[in-house]
């Protein structure tokens, strides 16, 4: 038996990257990529000939989405006509009024798409498996909703597959006090052949039968291996599953920090940036110090990268402008102006004033150069 | 610089040469009475240094001695410059010449002029006389007579060479880029923070947009919160409804209600019987009340009838009185009407007499008119006949003018042709012997002697001889003969057509015709005057009108009977008016009385019928019987009432023991509980329905998505605002610090000048704390003992002293910079009092330790103790006198 395990599509997530005002709108492209990746998953499912695609919660990012967004999501799933099993997570909990009731009311769900709105066993005898579903019916709970799996009976001969959304208690970082806890040994205590989990956005194995698929399209700067779906193969009930992550994401998100001390560092940064392209979203923290030439070199490098990358967010607040004596001489910074520069450089070292002083220095040099006051 | 000797020749008042020699370092006092030429010496020094040797024009008048048009002013001076001996000599106008030697170097002409300017720090004017603004440093240090107060202009004119020469000790006075950068910073800051709505600064604009977006976000957030609250509320209500449907509490209330209703049914027959008795009792009581009321009403009506009878008697009396008054009014009315009739008769007679008189007058006038018009018409008839006769004559004598002209032309042409024909006709003269004749054809038989003119060929036959053909000369004669014939025929025909013998006759007739025409015109004019512009038929119409009027008036007069008028018209009219008024008053009185009689009669009849009706109703036999019957009925009803009241009281007490009100309350409570639980279910269902509907509407709007987008916008804008704010703060910081440092730099630059000023001011104002403000290389403020004042706010004397001191200070600075200094004070301290002069002497002495100072004064005694090394009487310097 072969199926795809995915989760955390987070359809409807918004992004706050600013466009360049000339048609490049990275935020819109990132939102679009979330629909695209669903279509990619559907194509992969068809190509692999899987029995089903299991989505372990957070299909949608928010409860109140536009009808149009719901329609586009269902449309993106059309590429796979086999069985889709969707589970409500904390972002799209099965409340009295939810995206799910809206999908039902709008009559958008095709026959091959099941949404498991209530906890319980759903047997898919034709496909050879039974789903034990632990949907979230409220946004947060502090009970383990999968606890009943342990006592649940399933028809003999069908694989027992758990579908849940939450944090595996005590295993994930920062999960100590998380709501929606799931016992780390649930797969074994409930005699599951596989426990498909959602909520953690990186691909992660908990034990031989328990996996987080992670989000198929990353949406934050967190380097925990997002962007995959899991291809799960189980030969027979009781057999150990073979799990293969398959990359489906369009974008890669990176957050990097560099320390600049001189021109060589900028050159090295240029090389690093050179490896990135239109599929990359980068947040870059630049620290250290630069003289005017290095600063200019850095500016040019970042401008060039910005044109090439999908998104480049450069944070230069840690970079201190350190004009050299030659810089000052070249710009004819003398007399009162030289004293102002000295004062600002002194201010650069004071806590809370550094950013202001740095900005003032940059402005000073930019203006002197731009206005030709150095001539 | 040290001046040693000056020689001046042919310069202004010095026609004769003057030479001042022996000038020393330090203070030199040049004195002399007024008009001795002290200022001329100062002027000569200026001319020597500032003017080009070849300057011309008005300058000549300015420096030449009075009355010496061809003078050649010459000035020369010996001095030391930077330790070298120097001489300069210039001659102007006649033979322009300049010569300068410094040490071993020597310059001639313009090179000498330029070298001096370069060394001493002034400029040469391009053409013509030098100007104050080119005098540079010497212009500042050489104070013209009484001009020590003026400091600003000389300092400004000297600023450039001063800065250039003092650079070594003052440094750059202005920073190379600072000034312009301050402007750029200001402009950049405005770009960010400019207020206004049309084109606000980037920061202002972004902040405003952030504010808008934040409001939008808050609005959306509130709606999203609403959405969640609604969804939660929906879940809660769904749960509550489910619990109700599960517990089914209404079933217990239904059972309680059914049981209580059974108990109530058992009591019902007794309750109904009691209720029937109570109803009967109410009816009997009502009947009793009604009978009482009827008795009361009858008593009241009888009383009223008696009163009405009294009123009727009063009304009869009133009626009789009114009738009597009416009879009197009728008699009065008859009398006044007879009077009125007589008055009207009199008025008619008077009016008739008036009309007859008027008609007689009119008849007289119309008869006169008829007579006049008759005469006019008779005269007009005579004119008519005369004019008709004349017109007949005119027609008989009429010859049309065109025909007359044509006759004149033909007559003239005929005459001319006849003359021509006769002139060229062949003349035959013959003299025949007697008895002989010649057959002349058309000429007849020629016999005897005669002559003939022939104009056509003629054959003469002489019997027995033969024939002689004579043809008149040429063809012309034939043509003329033919023309005469034709014209003659034409004329004759025309005359015959006009009925005249010939042209002369036609002329005579035409003249006669014109004469008759004039007569006709005259007579017509006369006739027109007579008719006064009207036609004759109009006059006849008028005549007929007048005759018609005549007949009509005569008829009217005949109709009017004569006599009967006893009074004149006006009197008759007044008498008639009086009678009319009296008759009208009598009529009105009569009407009033008649109305009063009618009213009294009506009132009486009304009362009579009311009394009759009431008597029939109340006093009849039938009415009395009915009243007796009612008394009996009342007694029976009272007995029945008392009996029934007793029975009802007993039954009521018996029923109350069974507590029917408690049973009713039980039923009511069950019903309320049922209604309440039903209402709760209905409310829940409605709330669920409406909440679902609202959620559907809100959900379809995609609020969360909108919120996410707006949140992204807010975050972007917040970042942008932060960037702009940082930039604005940085610009403000730069601007502020730059201003501070520039000001500090300027103050530092002026420190040496301030120090020198302070040096002298401490001598001038010993023991007083001093504040000195310097700006742009000149002292601007001076404070003593705390109060600092602008320079111009000080007294004239103090400003004069400060002017001198400032120059000493500049001289000190120049000396420190290795530059030449020479100070000239021409009556520079005339406004200083004795105390200040004492202090200024100390200052002079101090300054003279470092500089050569030439002091011109007419009071040498005032300055003798200033430490002068040399005192020269200018008056004694004429060459040759010394």
Biggest sheet features of chain B:
6 strands, antiparallel
Give the total of beta strands of chain B.
20
Structural class of the helix and strand makeup of chain A? Answer: alpha/beta
Relative strand content of chain A? 15-25%
- Report the end-to-end length of chain B measured between terminal Cα atoms: 27 Å
Rg on CA atoms of chain A, Å: 27 Å
Major sheet: arrangement of strands of chain B: 2-1-4-5-6-7
- Unreliable residue stretches of chain A: none
Instruction: Give the oligomer, counting copies of the same chain as homo and different chains as hetero.
Output: heterodimer
* Molecular shape of chain B: flat
Unreliable stretches covering 5 or more consecutive residues of chain B: none
How many individual helices of chain A?
Answer: 9
Order of helices and strands of chain A: EHEHEHEEEEEEHEEEEEEHEHEHHH
Please, could you describe this protein's structure?
The complex is a heterodimer of chains A (375) and B (882). In chain A, strand 16, helix 6 (292-308) and strand 17 form a beta-alpha-beta unit. Chain A has 375 residues and is of the alpha/beta class. The model of chain A has no long low-confidence stretch (mean pLDDT 88). In chain A, helix 1 runs parallel beside helix 2 (67-76). Chain A starts with a strand and ends in a 5-residue tail after the last helix. Chain A is built from nine helices and 17 strands. In chain A, the strands form four sheets. In chain A, strands 4-3-2-1-13-14 form a six-stranded mixed sheet, covered by helices on one side. In chain A, strands 5-6-7-10-12-11 form a six-stranded mixed sheet, with no helix packed on it. Chain B is an alpha+beta fold and 882 residues long. Chain B is flat and about 160 Å long. The model of chain B has no long low-confidence stretch (mean pLDDT 85). At the A-B interface, helix 2, helix 8 and helix 9 of A face helix 6, helix 7, helix 15 and helix 16 of B.
